[in-house]
From TrEMBL:
This is 3-hydroxyisobutyrate dehydrogenase. InterPro entries: 3-OH-isobutyrate_DH-rel_CS (IPR002204), 6-PGluconate_DH-like_C_sf (IPR008927), 6PGD_dom2 (IPR013328), 6PGDH_NADP-bd (IPR006115), HIBADH (IPR011548), HIBADH-like_NADP-bd (IPR029154), HIBADH-related (IPR015815), NAD(P)-bd_dom_sf (IPR036291). GO terms for biological process: L-valine catabolic process. Pfam families: NAD_binding_11, NAD_binding_2. Residues 162-288 form the 3-hydroxyisobutyrate dehydrogenase-like NAD-binding domain. Its EC number is 1.1.1.31. It comes from Streptomyces rubellomurinus (strain ATCC 31215). The active site is at residue 168. It catalyses: 3-hydroxy-2-methylpropanoate + NAD(+) = 2-methyl-3-oxopropanoate + NADH + H(+).
Length: 294
């Protein structure tokens, strides 16, 4: 089944995602505040509207891919012009609480809503190989799944509204902590006189194996495609990792969960992202850990 889709937020992720929906045969009308994003989307067959409300008018499915919960909540206030009963799918990474408020806003306006944040980065968005983590009722999940499958390789139903965002913050807390763990190991190895390649050859096939090491290795050499080989050009920006770890730490505080390492990771990334590191790939955290060791 093809949909008339309104797509709001055509940035690094949303742009290629909208392009993949066009490729799958959907009628996609999009909007972004940034002219460059609008132009790029138009080049990929997205019909560009003059406002978010115009993009969504008459749509039976609305996708948002915006920076933060504030952006999503603001957008949801304005998007009531969608066709009655439209399915709202928010793919941004936002707090579980904000996701539930957004879903309530959509429902009050006579629509349905699911949260469907993603993992896989810009490369995954371009290659339509994202993993979607979905919080939805069963019928809404059934309707969203084939649309999400046009933009990703895995679509996981995590539970009711908010469960997708819960899975996303937990996953990225693992990722933030494991990137720091891998970076600390390389810095200690350097002080012990161990070559990067030797540590990689052992840990990548031993119990230290993890994605932060084998796909996004924070030192140049062992994984030629990792951002460390191109001066840490992102990739997944440290500022976004700081945001996601902040969401995890806030959730832990609200629910009285200790999550000590998650909180420490949030502090380290917040400090790193506040300076020039914010735009760099999150694996560049190794540079501050190395400075601290020197
Ligand atoms: P981005 O900054 O490239 O894109 C966001 C876009 O939203 C921008 O182009 C901006 O102009 C637009 N925008 C902001 N307010 C708007 C409004 N009111 N109306 C229309 N457009 C508006 O960010 P991104 O990298 O595409 O990330 C989007 C979301 O996806 C974030 O929540 C992020 O945490 C999440 N995410 C990003 C990655 C990644 O690797 N970049 C991976 C997974 C998840």
């Amino acid at each position: 089944m093809t949909h008339r889709i309104g797509f709001v937020g055509l940035g690094n992720m949303g742009g290629p995602m909208a392009a993949n929906l066009v490729k799958a045969g959907h009628r996609v009308t999009g909007y972004d505040l940034a002219e460059a994003a609008r132009t790029r989307a138009a080049d990929h067959g997205v019909a560009v509207a003059a406002s978010a409300a115009e993009a969504v008018t008459g749509a039976d499915l609305v996708i948002t891919m915006l920076p933060t919960g504030r952006h999503v909540l603001d957008a949801y206030q304005e998007l009531t012009v969608a066709a009655r009963g439209a399915l709202f799918v928010d793919c941004s990474t936002i707090a579980v609480g904000d996701a539930r408020v957004a879903a309530d806003l959509a429902r009050v306006a006579g629509h349905r809503a699911v949260d469907a944040p993603v993992s896989g980065g810009v490369a995954g968005a371009e290659a339509a190989s994202l993993t979607f983590m979905v919080g939805a009722d069963d019928p809404d999940f059934a309707e969203a799944e084939p649309v999400l499958a046009a933009m990703g390789r895995r679509v996981v139903h995590c539970g009711a509204s908010g469960a997708g965002q819960a899975a996303k913050v937990c996953n990225n807390m693992i990722l933030g902590i494991s990137m720091i763990a891998v970076s600390e190991a390389f810095v200690l190895g350097e002080s012990l006189g161990l070559s990067h390649q030797a540590l990689f050859d052992v840990a990548s096939t031993a119990s230290g194996q993890c994605w932060a090491l084998t796909s996004n290795c924070p030192v140049p050499g062992p994984v030629p495609g990792s951002p460390a080989n191109r001066d840490y050009a992102a990739g997944f920006a440290a500022a976004l990792m700081a945001k996601d770890l902040g969401l995890a730490a806030d959730a832990a505080t609200a629910l009285a969960v200790p999550a000590e390492l998650g909180r420490q990771a949030a502090e380290l990334y917040a400090a790193f992202a506040a300076g020039e590191g914010g735009a760099l790939d999150f694996s560049a955290i190794i540079t501050t850990l190395r400075e601290d060791a020197a």
